[in-house]
């Protein structure tokens, strides 16, 4: 085709389809400046912090960014993948991407991943795809439950990048999958297998979701309802009752009220109620990260055992497991219908 083009015509690449897995992002290192750069970008996002900018800017820059990077850097250091010198969230997202690329090989589909904050940036990945000839791009925010603080801001960032393109690709966004029967079956099987592998029988299994200010729920963010629905559907899939599988919310940030019950407070109270053997998982996350590994697998265990608990086990996220990847492939193929 290119030899039919007039002289000085820009190259026209072969048409392809792009699939971009979108996740939150993570620092490039555990040092103060790497963590600070990441937190500054994250906590300056008005989809995440809705406090008016004139009020939030001094709080963020003079208070939060002077202490939190050090504290968070220490937490990241405890879970850092030292072999790859990378945060688990990025290591796992890359594994998911490479695995999906192998599954879609031979179909002229380019698969990549991008982060909302930090690297690889959404803009750089979309520019790379456009240059490679992707005239149709499927954006896949890897958040099972929709929230403006995660899904919407990931899509916003992608559309910001498209705004600067002369030849803009056609774009689709994959919807949240909190109630997709195939997702529920995958997660349900992972719970059943995770519990079967334990050397104790849990009195209770906790689904601990990332929290959010209650105010965002009141303003219409459906995240809270979607978390509850995921757990209700899991109960139905597993044939368990309410006493066996409960919902909590973790990772509270700042002084305002967040969704309740809080995971840490619940773990501290359960042993007094006679619940001494617990398994816990984090279904708001498609990949293990600081919030699951350091806060739940490590910190949650300390809280529970110090309060008199006897056994505590963390069931990992779906990550790049066979079941997790089967689900991502199914969902991506469904969302690509009509394009391939
Ligand atoms: C400040 C408000 C925050 C809201 C609202 C929020 C929502 C939210 N976040 C996730 C997923 C992840 N969050 C992660 C880290 C993280 N989250 C916040 C704050 C809010 N999140 C902070 C400040 C941090 C950084 C770590 C810390 O300083 O505590 C991560 C992990 C990133 C990693 O590098 O491993 C994920 C993933 C969801 C699903 C969500 C929905 C309501
Ligand atoms: Fe978060
Ligand atoms: Fe709700």
From TrEMBL:
Cytoplasm as UniProt keyword: yes
GO molecular function terms attached to this record: ferrochelatase activity; metal ion binding
Gene that this sequence comes from: hemH
EC number(s) stated in the UniProt entry for this protein: 4.98.1.1
Biological process annotations from GO: heme biosynthetic process
Annotated function: Catalyzes the ferrous insertion into protoporphyrin IX.
Coiled-coil zones: none
Subcellular location: Cytoplasm
Predominant cellular place of this UniProt entry's protein: cytoplasm
Catalytic activity: Fe-coproporphyrin III + 2 H(+) = coproporphyrin III + Fe(2+); heme b + 2 H(+) = protoporphyrin IX + Fe(2+)
Pathway assignment: Porphyrin-containing compound metabolism; protoheme biosynthesis; protoheme from protoporphyrin-IX: step 1/1
InterPro entries: Ferrochelatase, Ferrochelatase_AS, Ferrochelatase_C, Ferrochelatase_N
Family under the similarity heading: Belongs to the ferrochelatase family.
Annotated Pfam families: Ferrochelatase
Entry keyword set: Cytoplasm, Heme biosynthesis, Iron, Lyase, Metal-binding, Porphyrin biosynthesis
Organism, scientific name: Devosia sediminis
Lineage: Bacteria, Pseudomonadati, Pseudomonadota, Alphaproteobacteria, Hyphomicrobiales
Entry superkingdom: Bacteria
Protein's UniProt name: Ferrochelatase
Residues holding Fe(2+): 210, 291
GO terms under cellular component: cytoplasm
